[in-house]
Amino acid sequence: MAQSKGIFKPREWYRLDNAAKIFPGQNTQKWSNIFRLSVVLREKVDPAVLEQAVIMTLPRFPCFNVRMRRGFFWHYLEKNDRLAPPIQPDIQNPCHRVNWRENNRFLFRVYYHEKRISIDFYHALSDAYGASRLLSTIAAQYLRLMGHEIPPGEGVLDLNERPTQDEVSDPFQRFASSKAAPRHKVNKFAYHAKGTRMPAHMVNITTGYMPVDALKNKAKEYGVTITEFIAALLLDVHYRKQLEEHRGRGKLKDVSVQIPVNLRNSFPTKTLRNFSLCYSVRIDPNMGEYTFAEIVRQVSLYLRYINNSKELNAMMSSNLKLESNPFMRFLPLPIKDFFIGLSFLITGEKATSVLISNLGIVRVPKEMEAYIDRFVLMTGPGRRSGSRCAAVSFQNTFSLTFANIYQESDIEREFFTRLVKMGIHVKIESNREQME
């Protein structure tokens, strides 16, 4: 970004941040790395007013007001000369692949249905933190246009303020300074639940809503956080499913859970671009039988041991070294994309049984809270994983969504059933028939 006489001047183009560089090479005609964030209001959405809210909000978010371009060595983001993406009625199978020439060439899609506003984000733009700022600010402007007085604050940005350098910068470049190599990197292939695959571009979505306080109290009984508790329960469900399928035949595979970590909690930045890394926690069933309490303890101890700024810095620095490697740096883009796509096809999700991404609490100004019922976060479906999960909290509602590429719903059913047996009330919504 250029600064002149204290005036912020948005650039016409941006380099992809370090995390975003792999996503274009992973694209296929059937799959892209997409996630969705929704806000459910307490009144029906007017699409014409929503369109105006998006148009008025977008200039405040220059790193979203872009299109994808191909350079000789890397993809990059260029300012989009279109006004805004079209506002569309919602669809049953969201998070489908991105085509850079569609959608007015924007890399996020805006949908509405009844009281819900949803945005599908291409992950090369941002992570769930940045997405929550854009959606919350659009929702706030929508409510203003509907006659409600909503001030900026919390997750709602001030449309009268100029974007800051920090918001649009690549913090990986700023904070990566470690000379150490990351430890504990395990790429062994992990167990995957089997199922009947859905046709391309179709996904089974199941969301469970539960009280935050009840979930927090249950996690507290085990001495862990909500994220640690949910990750352990997902591990346990997959571990026991493998035991049931295995029936003593051959060697068992590791069961692993991947957990994205918001680096803003460890490094001082409010960037709206990608700034997260993933930890992987695994258990080896061949070592003996695990109780749920043992799995909870193992997840918690591992995360509390490894989740610190020095380990994270080593991971960031290692990723940047790969990007700046002379051989990789000067490979023409088509060759880079080929090798990135091949690597993802071969390894991809094979080292992960399940993913859980917890955005945490979304906060908005007090004046806005009365007009919002809940937020919902959804990861796009995986290419082979039937149990990619995402969670978000708003006030006392915790929502957890499964994105499943298989027809079977046994993973979701078992997970939510276990929570109910623990005394946590769960309300289920799905884009298929309600689970019994």
Question: Poorly predicted ranges (pLDDT <50, ≥5 residues)?
Answer: 1-6
Helical content (DSSP H or I, runs of 4+): 25-40%
N-to-C SSE string, H for helix and E for strand: EEEHEHEEEEEHHHEHHEEHHHHEHEEEHE
Largest sheet strand order: 12-11-13-15-16-10-17
Please state the overall shape, judged from the principal axes of the Cα atoms.
globular
> What class do helices, strands and sheet pairing give?
alpha+beta
Q: Beta fraction of the residues?
A: 15-25%
Radius of gyration over C-alpha positions, nearest whole angstrom: 21 Å
Write down how many β-strands occur, each being a DSSP E stretch of 2 or more residues. 17
Describe the protein's architecture and organization.
With 436 residues, this protein is an alpha+beta fold. It contains 13 helices and 17 strands. The strands form 4 sheets. Strands 12-11-13-15-16-10-17 form a 7-stranded mixed sheet. α6 packs across α7 (226-246) and α7 (226-246) crosses α8. The chain is globular and about 60 Å long. The N and C termini lie far apart (53 Å). The model is unreliable at 1-6 (pLDDT under 50).
